[in-house]
Amino acid sequence: MPYPTDRPAVWFVTGASRGLGLALVAHLLSTGAQVAATTRSTERLQAALAEVDTTNLLALEVSLTDEAEVNTAFKQANDRFGRVDVVVNNAGYGYLGAVEETSSTAVTDMLNVQIGGTWNVIRAALPPMRAAHSGHIINVSSILGILSFPGWGLYCAAKFALEGLSESLAAEVADYGIEVSIVEPGYFRTDFLTDDSLAVAADISDAYPGIRQIVTEHQEMSGSQLGDPAQAAAALVSIACRTGGPLRQQLGSDLSNMAEEKVDSLKAEILAGRDLAHSTDYVR
């Protein structure tokens, strides 16, 4: 079933009190959609939406890594709105630090949120979507889900994993009329690069001075990013409205060319390694 036009669409959005999630929730409410929005602080979400009509908002304080809390949140959304048409897995945070400097705790925390939390949401969303033979799951990855930079190893690891999860999911649910989209934003003018959303390795050394410079450059970049969150919100709605569209969609011009270059580079590597790859078969 396509995106509903005869009634307000019902959205379930995670990570809703900051960044692209907040921009999306504000945009949806302004268009009359019904929104269940998860956050770690409903007070912060309500304050951020002070100038928006929140009649159609269900604000939910949820720890996405707690499966029981996620299941309860979906039940509340279905009880309030009757169904969920679109799920947006947007919750997450950035992390900068060399691979060697990244602690096991940081790795666990990142993967618990980006992968474990997303998985909890997907498991809760799918049974009613399958029963309705409709629905759309949008997983917000990053341009760093297809290419990587020094210092972003942990964040890239999480986003690369999210992309793989999403590819498998798309193939598994296609027969149930459920769409899956991966959204890969570049840099948008949100608080993603502020201390609220960007963690930095705590135990650093003098072995990676280049990464210290990268950290400084990104902190100084905040407020000057090219991407407009309001335009991204509108783009997410357009993605939800389409059926049979491409699995991936980049947002922002800043890194789009880099994505093309990564694809070309990957193909060149595959072709260069073809003979060695084929040489490992049993000789017939």
TrEMBL record:
<dbReference type="InterPro" id="IPR020904">
    <property type="entry name" value="Sc_DH/Rdtase_CS"/>
</dbReference>
<protein>
    <submittedName>
        <fullName>SDR family NAD(P)-dependent oxidoreductase</fullName>
    </submittedName>
</protein>
<dbReference type="InterPro" id="IPR051911">
    <property type="entry name" value="SDR_oxidoreductase"/>
</dbReference>
<dbReference type="Pfam" id="PF00106">
    <property type="entry name" value="adh_short"/>
</dbReference>
<comment type="similarity">
    <text>Belongs to the short-chain dehydrogenases/reductases (SDR) family.</text>
</comment>
<dbReference type="InterPro" id="IPR057326">
    <property type="entry name" value="KR_dom"/>
</dbReference>
<dbReference type="InterPro" id="IPR002347">
    <property type="entry name" value="SDR_fam"/>
</dbReference>
<feature type="domain" description="Ketoreductase">
    <location>
        <begin position="9"/>
        <end position="191"/>
    </location>
</feature>
<dbReference type="InterPro" id="IPR036291">
    <property type="entry name" value="NAD(P)-bd_dom_sf"/>
</dbReference>
<keyword id="KW-0560">Oxidoreductase</keyword>
